Amino acid sequence: MALLAGGGIDCVIFKSSSALKDFGRLVDTDDLGRVLAGVTVVCGDAETARTAEEYSLAEHKMMPATLSGATLAGLVST
Q1: pLDDT at residue 33 greater than cutoff 60
Q2: How far is residue 47 CA from its own chain's centroid?
Q3: 32: burial class by Cβ within 10 Å (0-12, 13-18, 19+)?
Q4: What residues pair up with 13 in beta bridges, in sequence order?
Q5: Per-residue pLDDT averaged across 4-12, rounded?
Q6: Angle of helix 17-26 relative to helix 46-54, nearest 10 degrees?
Q7: Of residues 4 and 65, more confidently modeled
Q8: H/E element, 43
Q9: Starting at the edge strand that comes first in sequence, how are the strands of the sheet with 60-62 ordered?
Q10: Residue 61 clears pLDDT 90, i.e. is over it
Q11: Distance of alpha carbon 21 from its chain centroid, rounded?
C-alpha cells in the first residue's frame, strides 16, 4: 500500500470482477477512483469493467485478448 500511496504504481490489472471487489475490501472503500487516482486500471473483461464503474473507476481500459509486454506498455503510456 505504501507504493500505491507514494505514487510508485503505474498500472493495475484486474482480471476478474471478484479480484476488483476483493481489492476494494482490502483498502476498505467503494471509492477506488480516489485510491487509484493517477494509476492506469486495466480490466480483464466486460463484467470487470462494469464493476470498475461501480467502484468509481471511470477511467479504465479493457485488456486485449493477447497481452504482451509491448501491449501492456502501450496501455500504460496512453
Answers
A1: yes
A2: 13
A3: buried
A4: 42
A5: 81
A6: 30
A7: 4
A8: strand 40-43
A9: 11-14, 40-43, 60-62
A10: no
A11: 11
